[in-house]
Automatic annotation (TrEMBL):
It comes from Neorhizobium alkalisoli. One of its GO terms (cellular component) is membrane. Residues 16-148, 158-285 form the EamA domain. SUPFAM superfamilies: Multidrug resistance efflux transporter EmrE. The chain crosses the membrane at residues 12-31, 37-60, 81-101, 107-125, 134-151, 157-175, 187-209, 215-232, 244-263, 269-286. The keyword Transmembrane helix applies. Keywords: Membrane, Transmembrane, Transmembrane helix. This is S-adenosylmethionine uptake transporter. InterPro entries: EamA_dom, EmrE-like.
Length: 306
């Protein structure tokens, strides 16, 4: 009987983890849709500044529970600086891309993040991957090229913003893996501070007046993103990463739905094909990593532009 109760408790924890992951993914997609709406009226730098201030509302209680030294006595300071630099690059370019492209198109580029990570981890983290996963990495790149539309449009600034931003996202994840001893609150706080500093520089000469309602929306952007991050972090404590990893692709589903609902955007056939190739390649990499048990699945909580 005791074994039965233990099994049921385990199932309940896994179910709770799955539900938290799904809710966290929805909040990230909602954050992205809000960001697209806000950058239509405000400069990217201004959005970054107020988003970072909004994040402080959620982060403050977390920071209060740890010593102040946890913020400045960090492991590998050089890697910490590189991480926040790439995270800020990722966030800035994401908002720059969604200002011009449909949300689902930009999210398709970012869904290739785990594929980039698989390739980068081989070289930077010494995580060996076999020929099957190398083939999946190659096919994932093919999916990105399909989504980019092989033409002169590939060189358009918005598409390049999305592509370079997704590489920044992947590099942030790789660096995160080298900073496992750093608390989540510390990582997110420095990311918010870097976003604030970067936003201040980017908003010089581009600061627009806002109403009280618009200010609340800009601050809510940070609250939603930080809450989503906390939900995903908690989900990983309740359910195995191998179970949760494939669920990150619900972000693409939500991006399509919210893009259609709020902006009237629907992906064209070429974007759907590219997304299918990218998702298929990513799921295969997850599967092989789980079978070989030599790498941990990449999740949005590792790092997120949300």
């Amino acid at each position: 009987m005791a074994k039965g109760l233990s099994a049921r408790a385990g199932i309940s924890a896994v179910t709770a983890g799955i539900l938290l992951m799904l809710l966290g993914d929805f909040l990230f997609a909602l954050n992205d849709a809000m960001g697209k709406w806000l950058v239509a009226s405000f400069a990217v730098g201004q959005v970054l500044v107020l988003r970072s201030i909004g994040s402080a509302i959620v982060l403050a209680p977390m920071l209060a529970r740890q010593p102040l030294s946890a913020l400045y006595r960090v492991e590998q300071p050089g890697i910490q600086i590189m991480r926040v630099a790439f995270a800020t690059l990722d966030l800035s370019l994401f908002y720059a891309a969604v200002a011009y492209l449909p949300l689902a198109d930009v999210m398709t580029f970012y869904m290739a993040g785990p594929i980039y990570v698989a390739a980068l981890s081989h070289f930077f983290l010494g995580e060996r991957i076999g020929w099957r996963r190398w083939l999946a990495v190659f096919l994932g790149f093919v999916g990105v090229i399909i989504a980019l539309r092989p033409s002169s449009a590939m060189l358009d600034w918005p598409a390049l913003f999305g592509l370079v931003g997704s590489f920044g996202f992947a590099l942030t994840i790789v660096l995160n893996r080298q900073l496992r001893a750093t608390s989540d609150a510390t990582l997110v706080t420095w990311q918010a501070i870097a976003g604030l500093i970067g936003g201040v520089f980017l908003s010089i000469g581009h600061w627009s007046p806002f109403t009280f309602g618009e200010l609340m929306a800009l601050l809510l952007l940070g609250v939603v993103a930080s809450t989503g991050h906390l939900l995903l972090t908690r989900s990983l404590k309740l359910a195995p990463a191998s179970v949760l990893a494939p669920l990150q692709y619900t972000l693409l589903v939500w991006a399509v739905f919210l893009g259609w609902l709020f902006f009237g955007d629907l992906p064209d056939a070429q974007t759907w094909i590219g997304a299918a190739v990218i998702v298929g390649s990513g799921l295969f990499i997850f599967h092989r990593g789980n079978v070989k048990q030599d790498t941990s699945p990449v999740l949005p909580t590792d790092s997120s532009h949300g």
